[in-house]
Design brief:
This protein has 605 residues and is an alpha/beta fold. It has three domains: 95 residues; 281 residues, no CATH class; 145 residues, 2-Layer Sandwich (Heat Shock Protein 90), CATH 3.30.565.10. A six-stranded parallel beta sheet has the order 4-3-2-12-1-11. The protein has a five-stranded mixed beta sheet with strand order 17-19-20-23-22. α5 links the parallel β2 and β3. The two termini are 30 Å apart.
Length: 605
């Protein structure tokens, strides 16, 4: 297989693998927290909105300030206050006051229930999920809405319940408190509730169909979609609703414009009685304001054409993923300049991010965009890494070739010129010098032409240019290094008559190219030393043996060492010692007139 074909296969496989990893991560829910974080961030970054003029909140910030030392609200106080409120002609009054905070021992408790029943525009609350909170006794079921909410795994509230079948009586369908307020209010404007058109299980008013939450809506992954839910498009404003303290209402300090023809919601914000709720726009929201946001988004979608959150279809999401995958595979295989690819990918990432923001912030469309963004980001990282490595490696190659060219090659040129000019009749010397010059130039050309994207081959000098594929097993590479090196034109190699060669397999990772390269170069150096420095060797033993958890690589000959002082530590010995330290093993080199020279490298793989 040619290098180009191998490169094409590897790069295509890389692109497909990245896409599969991202799709799998999306499928098992690993991307859900990041998708929700991005969703929250967009909601926070939107432009502030005007205060909603359809809703007024009446808050009971301290039960003690209203009822004295009593820890519960007096039914008679509530009757008097709501009666006073009715005088301002509100369209709907929502009593978000669960019965566990109303004093049912008071004689007026039954009277309060009757009072609520007598007014068609009053909606009361209950809790129909454990722990159950019973509604006011005797209240018309059509005037009761549940205040239960659904919390995501990170304890944020992003979904609003619209309705659900009663868990205790599955034949009875109940509306949520907020939705019932909105439904009652909109009916006063002539907008009646109908089944959806695009989704028969959804709800709609006129031509406004409320998008229904599914288990995999938007960035969610198999969430609990009990009943009918929709995403919440919170209002972005410091004061989204007109808020009045309950004591102000009792003291009759209201403006008629703050109540007339509005939905008025009375609720408890006392921190001693009710906990705070995390939302995308406020990590400390009280239940009263949460109800306001729930109710507001339904009303304003119908009356003010304000966007609801509409999650994208999963088909569209996976189409984006596939398109991103095709882009990454194309870019990896297309022979374009790396810098150009980086610019294109950054541009695509910016487009995707802006596309996601604009659709959600201005039109309410929530697209799970992180999967294609991650795919393009991985591709970008690959190209950035490649550009950095190519730049560093190119500089090293250029510098290496400059050193070779300006040093040894110039010296060889001078020697060859002198040999020719002086007509020295040493044909062997001239041929050797020519071969050395050619070998050095071949090294330089090999460095220049080698693919910068790969480091999976090793160039060995021989009578022909040899490249080893470092993806092969190490013991097979040792066989190749042995065979190729012994073909080199060293005089001593021709004198060797007895040869012993064997290599046990080594448990080393196939893609550990760096370690394979260093071990092969060590073996080549050890064999070359025999060819260059051993005098009249007749026997050569080269073995790689697995013994007692250690791998022992031995190169031994029976020749006499030449070349001056045998105790001088050469560059090859220093390199071998460094390799041994890296492997946490040992290297030793011994020479004797009787046994010749042995080089032994041992380590625990």
């Amino acid at each position: 297989m040619s290098n180009k074909v191998a490169q094409l296969v590897v790069q295509t496989s890389t692109g497909i693998l990245i896409v599969l990893v991202i799709v799998l991560s999306r499928f098992v829910g690993l991307l859900e927290p990041l998708e929700l974080f991005w969703f929250d961030l967009i909601l926070k970054m939107r432009q502030p909105e005007q205060q909603d003029n359809h809703i007024t909140l009446i808050e009971i910030s301290s039960i003690e300030s209203v009822s004295g030392q009593n820890q519960k609200l007096s039914p008679q106080d509530l009757i008097d206050t709501v009666s006073q409120l009715q005088a301002y002609q509100p369209s709907v009054i929502g009593l978000n006051i669960p019965t566990d905070l109303i004093d049912d021992s008071d004689s007026s408790f039954k009277k309060f229930s009757d009072f609520v029943n007598q007014h068609s525009n009053i909606i009361s609350a209950e809790g129909f999920l454990p722990p159950f909170i019973d509604p006011l006794p005797g209240i018309d079921p059509n005037k009761i809405g549940f205040v239960d909410i659904f919390i995501d795994q990170d304890y944020y509230v992003r979904r609003m319940p619209l309705g659900s079948f009663d868990l205790q009586d599955e034949s009875q369908f109940k509306y949520s408190f907020s939705f019932l307020l909105a439904k009652t209010y909109l009916e006063g404007y002539g907008h009646s509730l109908r089944n959806g058109i695009l989704d028969k299980e959804a709800m709609r008013f006129g031509n406004i169909e409320i998008p229904k939450v599914d288990p995999n809506t938007g960035g969610y992954n198999r969430i609990d979609d009990v009943g009918i839910q929709t995403m919440v498009n919170y209002r972005t404003s410091q004061l989204p609703f007109k808020t009045i303290d309950f004591q102000t209402l009792k003291e009759k300090n209201l403006k008629s414009s703050d109540v007339k023809n509005r939905i008025v919601i009375i609720g408890i914000t006392d921190v001693k009685k009710r906990f705070r709720i995390k939302t995308p726009i406020d990590s400390q929201m009280d239940g009263l304001n949460l109800t306001g946001h729930f109710t507001s988004q339904i009303i304003n979608s119908v009356l003010e054409d304000r966007s609801l959150i509409r999650p994208s279809n999963q088909v569209f999401e996976y189409a984006l993923i596939i398109l991103s995958g095709i882009t990454i595979i194309y870019s990896l295989n297309k022979q374009l300049p790396t810098i150009k690819l980086i610019v294109i990918e950054i541009f695509l990432l910016i487009i995707l991010i802006l596309f996601s923001y604009i659709l959600l912030a201005f039109y309410g469309y929530w697209i799970a965009i992180l999967s294609p963004i991650f795919i393009l980001s991985f591709n970008l990282v690959i190209h950035l890494s490649s550009a950095y490595q190519n730049n560093i490696r190119r500089k090293i190659i250029e510098r290496t070739f400059e050193v070779i060219h300006n040093g040894p090659l110039q010296t060889l040129a001078i020697i060859l010129n002198n040999v020719r000019n002086e007509q020295i009749k040493n044909i062997a010397l001239e041929n050797d010098l020519k071969r050395l010059s050619l070998d050095i130039r071949e090294i330089g050309e090999e460095l220049r032409s080698e693919s910068l994207a790969y480091d999976q081959s090793l160039y060995l000098t021989s009578s022909t240019r040899e490249n080893l594929d470092l993806s092969e097993d190490l013991h097979e590479l040792f066989y190749q290094v042995y065979s190729i090196t012994l073909r080199r034109d060293f005089l001593n190699f021709g004198k060797i008559r007895a040869k012993v060669r064997s290599f046990d397999a080594i448990p080393i990772k196939k893609n550990n190219f760096g370690l394979k390269r260093e071990l092969c170069m060590y073996l080549e150096e050890a064999l070359c030393n025999v060819g260059k420095h051993s005098l009249n060797p007749t026997k050569l033993i080269v073995q790689g043996e697995y013994r007692e958890e250690f791998y022992i690589l031995v190169v031994q000959d029976n020749g006499i060492i030449t070349g001056g002082n045998k105790n001088i530590t050469g560059q090859g010995t220093k390199s071998a010692s460094r390799l041994a330290r890296k492997l946490k093993g040992q290297f030793e080199r011994k020479s004797s007139p009787e046994k010749g020279t042995i080089c032994r490298l041992s380590w625990k793989p």
